[in-house]
Amino acid sequence: MAVMGLTEWAYTLSESLLSDPLPRRWAHSLGVAKRARSLSPILGDNAELLEAAAVLHDIGYSPAIAATGFHPLDGARFLRDQEGADERVVRLVAHHSCALLEAEERGLRQELEGEFELERSDLADALLYCDMTTTPDGTQTTPVERLDEIVQRYGPDTIVGRFIQRAAPDIHAAAGRVEKRLAQASARRQPM
């Protein structure tokens, strides 16, 4: 029997947890993974790692594994405890898209920080960029449009609404860093 690669395993697992109960969330996850593939010029050896984390980042929403109601923590715990997943993938899922700020809103920051170390900032930025430039339906968008959509969908005074408004400066800064790296990589590939 052939050994399943990291991304193949990640897609299979994510699909099994999201496609039937949460088809829109599955479409978003596929879009985020597609966006991650587009960042391969700046990811080098971490391209497969990021794509796996991208397709898995929202599995904590699955009714089959949701425990706390905070999807980054639920997803990371499942990946660690049930799947024995790559530690770096687990950390990226645990901390994706400014999760510490949302954990704070939910009274779960100490749990998240205590259980899962942060992953390298360039990879955390890349995953955040992929998530915040992908609509709930999996199509490409801008961070400004994505943040507006989240606030409208959840409401400005909800936990998610408050968190995303607090996280907006960090999200825009991370997106800017990724776009700068992409522009530099593109410039290096251009013939003189």
TrEMBL record:
<dbReference type="InterPro" id="IPR006675">
    <property type="entry name" value="HDIG_dom"/>
</dbReference>
<dbReference type="Pfam" id="PF01966">
    <property type="entry name" value="HD"/>
</dbReference>
<dbReference type="InterPro" id="IPR003607">
    <property type="entry name" value="HD/PDEase_dom"/>
</dbReference>
<feature type="domain" description="HD">
    <location>
        <begin position="25"/>
        <end position="133"/>
    </location>
</feature>
<protein>
    <submittedName>
        <fullName>HD domain-containing protein</fullName>
    </submittedName>
</protein>
<dbReference type="InterPro" id="IPR006674">
    <property type="entry name" value="HD_domain"/>
</dbReference>
